[in-house]
Amino acid sequence: MRVDVSEIFEILNEPQRNAVTSESKNLLVLAGAGSGKTRVIAHRVAWLIKAENINPHSILTVTFTNKASREMRGRIEDIVQEEMGNFWCGTFHGISHRLLRTHWEEAGLRKEFAILDSEDQYRVIKRVVKSMGLDDTKWPPRQIQWFINKQKDECRRSKDVEVADDYFAEKMTEVYKVYEELCERESLVDFGELLLRVYILLKSNEEVLKHYQRRFSHILVDEFQDTNEVQYQFLRLLADGGACFMSVGDDDQSIYGWRGAKSENINRFTTDYKNTEIIRLEQNYRSTSVILNAANAVIKNNQGRMGKELWTDQKEGEPISIYSAYNEDDEARYVVGSIQNWVNQGRSLDEVAILYRSNAQSRVLEEAILRESLPYKIYGGLRFYERAEIKNAMSYLRLLYGREDDAAFERVINIPPRGIGAKTIDIIRAKAAEKNISLWKACEELIDVEGLAARASQSIQGFMSSFNTLESDTRDLPLKDLVDMAIERSGLIEYHKKEAGEKGRTRVENLSELVGAARDFEPDSFDELEESALKMFIDHAALDAGETQASEHESAIQLMTLHSAKGLEFPLVFITGFEEGLFPHKLSIEDPNQLQEERRLCYVGMTRSMEKLYVTHAEMRNLYGSENFNPASRFLREIPDELTVEVRTGGNVSRTSKTSSSRVSGEVPDTNFKLGQRVVHEAFGEGVILNYEGEGANARVEVNFDTSTTKWLMVAYAKLQNI
Fold first, then answer.
1. Which one in 253, 320, 638, 656 has a CA-CA gap of 20 to 30 Å to 148?
2. Is 110 labeled as catalytic in the residue annotation?
3. Is 303 a catalytic residue?
4. Choices 1.10.10.160, 3.20.20.150, 3.40.50.720, 1.20.272.10: CATH for 114-186
5. 608 is a catalytic site residue
6. Span 611-632, mean pLDDT?
7. How confident is the model over 30-52, as pLDDT tens digits?
8. What are the strands, taking DSSP E only, across 284-411?
């Protein structure tokens, strides 16, 4: 018998109520940013229990993170006013683990099977590579790990991988096969295997499949746009038994294609499940109408969307502030200054987020924040000088400066891998302790007396010789060139290039940015000890890394990548680096699908802001160790002019058109340039000045280069030469 559930409706708008009470067998809820999707799922479950008298244990609710799962369970319990016990609410991995613990025998596992986390899996793959006699510099375990996990995400065992005439794929698949056999022998299950093994169990064991098809009369899935192939097929097997299936997601917020997510799964849902009812949640409870209208204008440029238009009944809000910086330092100063103004108005630092496309951008921002002694946190990541690849590179520099640095020696002796094992390092440590000498000196002694195995001795000699050569080659170089050469010779860049996916690319970008840090490093003065520039740079990095992040409960600025920002919200948001080649990323511009994902990432970033949004870009940016003169991002041009205000030094100028302040005739004031003048740029070649704005050091010129490229450049930084 149904009970009075009127209280369930008190805080729901009409589309939310329709989603909660829908009698459709298949329901797709397109939930825009900030539209209350968690509220809808929780109230839907409560409605099924209280109004439809559905047994809670017949409801399967799937989330993507443990945090989301805990929040969902808590909300449901608050609404129904009772504890849910063994209610099936969890992540894909958590639910798969629960199934395998119950059906370990049918799944071909030992009862006491062990779960491998990512690092455990990496170590097992290293064992496999070694057992196969492969050179791990040519076949890096990280790259193999990525390959194996990708195959599992696509529902493929090693026998299912098509290699054709691809030697690389063939060898990787061989490693995958040996890895499978080892895991089978030792009953080891990695994260990808949790899902794949359950999928295979359900597909191959009709009795188990029928049992769970009968059990789950209702399936609800959050963040459906982030599902990969094996997750989609797992859900489909369960739902094909006749369950009512509700998927909740937003195709405009699908930003994880690089790790296997398939945004098209939302479209597949309407194809695979006939007569699907689609409900759009478009009322936003987070942002001002200005921010929402801007985000809508950007995302509508993507093709193949399911379509929706966010709106709010909240205030219109301030226009989006656009700041065109001279360079990345000017950008960082402006951001920090704006944050200080926010605080001076009585607002809190923990209301502020700075977002960026690339981790490497955080270095300059961190330094600007530290100069003003403001507390900050890196959300979901590490400070620049705390990142593993940066610590490795700094250890090379430390060892280059002084061979007695045992901590640096131990960190880089086998990174990149040189075939120097733990046993060899133990021998070196023992010799150092016996003679009370450094590890470097211990190596020299062991080599002299042939106290090491031939292969290990040869590897260590090569390692030590490379440092001696590097010291000789860099003795008279400027700091920037020294650091550049040291990182190149270390092999770290090539090592991380082999680490597939976003993580490897980010590590390489960070290493390049360390070269930029050396270029920008300006010691206050050489002290009385006349320390070298290298030593002072090393000390600077150590002190920066030693600056602890704000304590857990301390009010602090939040710094994070745009990917990390998904699901979060802040009153004040800065999106930095709004430039072609950076955002959208240069590797995405030529691929229509990747470009659309970059635009979705922009949409996600913009809709994190509740009250005020700043967008910044630089005319010239030193990033990854080189100068870049990139035009403003196309995403900026997609924001309607009437929703923005352009910030200029000395005040704000309303931007009624993208080139409103440009001149169309005459000389460029206080410069040696004029319209129609032919000029040459060291990177872009020859071109003609078409337009300009500003004067003197602040002047910008629009140059049409002979390569058919048109760029706006800062006269002060572009190093243009008259022809």
1. 253
2. no
3. no
4. 1.10.10.160
5. yes
6. 88
7. 999 999 999 999 999 999 999 99
8. 320-325, 352-356, 376-378
Q: What mean pLDDT is reported for the chain? A: 87
38 catalytic, yes or no? yes
Which CATH architecture fits 6-102+196-281? 3-Layer(aba) Sandwich (3.40)
Distance between CA atoms of residues 623 and 604, nearest Å: 24
* Residue ranges in 56-190 assigned as alpha helix (H): 66-80, 92-102, 118-131, 141-153, 167-186
**Residues 6 or more apart in contact with residue 101 via CB below 8 angstroms:** none
φ and ψ at residue 245, rounded to 5 degrees: -120, 120
Instruction: Look up 83 and say whether it is catalytic.
Output: no
What CATH number matches the domain at 285-383+547-659, 2.60.40.10, 3.40.50.300, 3.30.420.40, 3.40.50.20? 3.40.50.300
Distances (CA, A) of 332 to 484, 622, 714: 24, 13, 17
Q: Does the pLDDT of residue 660 top 50, yes or no?
A: no
Which listed residue (136, 153, 190, 222) is catalytic? Answer: 222
Winning range, highest mean pLDDT, from 439-453, 532-546, 572-586, 669-683: 572-586
Out of 253, 424, 474, 561, pick the active-site residue: 253
Instruction: Judge whether 6-102+196-281 and 285-383+547-659 match in fold.
Output: yes
Does the annotation count 37 as an active-site position? yes
Output the pLDDT for position 711: 80
For the chain, which residues make up each domain, given as ranges? 6-102+196-281, 114-186, 285-383+547-659, 385-543, 662-723
